[in-house]
Protein 1
Amino acid sequence: MATAASKESEILENAKNLLPPDYVPSEDEEYMNERHQAYFRMLLIEWKRSIRDAAEHTLQSLADGPIREADLNDRASSETDWGIELRTRDRQRKLVSKIDSALRRIDEGEYGYCEVTGDPIGLRRLIARPVATMTVEAQEAHERREKVSRDD
């Protein structure tokens, strides 16, 4: 784990060195050029790091001990809060695999292109959802098909 984290830190530093501090990808540049890729790589690694930090904080809180509320209502409230926290961490665990997949697509030169149509996803969509794998149109069509399947 330590070697993966150090490798990730090295990759992050290389990405940061390619970009000015206030850089934001622009439609005026060639799509998915080296700077775009460095920007999204940096964004994804930072996002992954923040998720890991939050998970470590949750694990530390759990390790600190069980809920010790004397009042049953307070205990129920605390248990509900923990349940929500654990569900959030589970969703974030799934998000980390999507982040890893996006980082692999950057390495393979496939990032930013729709997995269905092959068209560019678009910078605005990727900035809003860096793990996006489809254009808005392809995603909407996918969701319509999914809804029809559920209705059957």
Protein 2
Amino acid sequence: MTDTTHPLNVLFLCTHNSARSILAEAILNHIGKGRFKAFSAGSSPRENQQPNPLGLQVLQNAGISTEGLQSKSWDEFGTLDAPHMDLVITVCDNAAGEVCPYWPGQPATAHWGYPDPSAGDGTDAQKLEAFRQTLHALKRRLELLVSLPTENLEKTLLQGTARDLATR
């Protein structure tokens, strides 16, 4: 049974932890109403530990805090002294196909694939629009997660619930 007095810890994974996973972390912490605590990480995070500036810009434009956001390795969350994760969600197809570290406590897992808004060529306005669209797609799905009744967040149901949201 999930302890409802503590927030549900959710880890979002992407290869570089610079765009989609950062957006998801910030959005869920913004809308999570104290029921969720979001984190993000990547298998090969950016060397300078900085999220994509366009991602930070769309978050700020949406009124979502960017304080403390940084690219980090998923190895930080595989240690015994790391925060215990209840749910681990990959948000890019590359990370979904990689061999993930062992997660203490065997959290529920799901894959929510989104195209990389930082990929490809285009004008700055087109790239910014790609980030904005990704933010809104993530926000819609995360609003569904946040609105779920507590019983759907019980450990025995969480994996199925999170995977069902991948189709919405």
Protein 3
Amino acid sequence: MRFMVIIKATQDSEAGIMPSEELLTAMGAYNEELVKAGIMLAGDGLHPSSKGARVRFSGPKRDVVDGPFAETKELIAGFWIWQCKSMEEAVEWVKRCPNPMQGDSEIEIRRIFEAEDFGEAFTPELRKQEERIRAEAAKKSG
């Protein structure tokens, strides 16, 4: 099972306050542990929402809203993509994480959909298309 592990933003991360050397060192060690255990597939921090944008959809209409966005508790400061045997294993790994922020913080864990989750609607043709897309994306990012 793959999981997206989401580091929630705080007022400090949204203000662009960068982590200390101590925190960067601790997170680097934690990321090494994740990689050695075969858990971490990807991960990165994100710039504050003031440097972002949202696109709102309403039928055929598209509206672009530039950041910053008001609700800090709903924003993301960073993420990992993990491969774990279960949600319980992902939770155990998160509990070992250094606190990613200076003060209180929160990390959310969400399972990523896999092809079999879509049932019959995900036809053999759609599966082949998905495989082609993933292979092409892997070539371009590698």
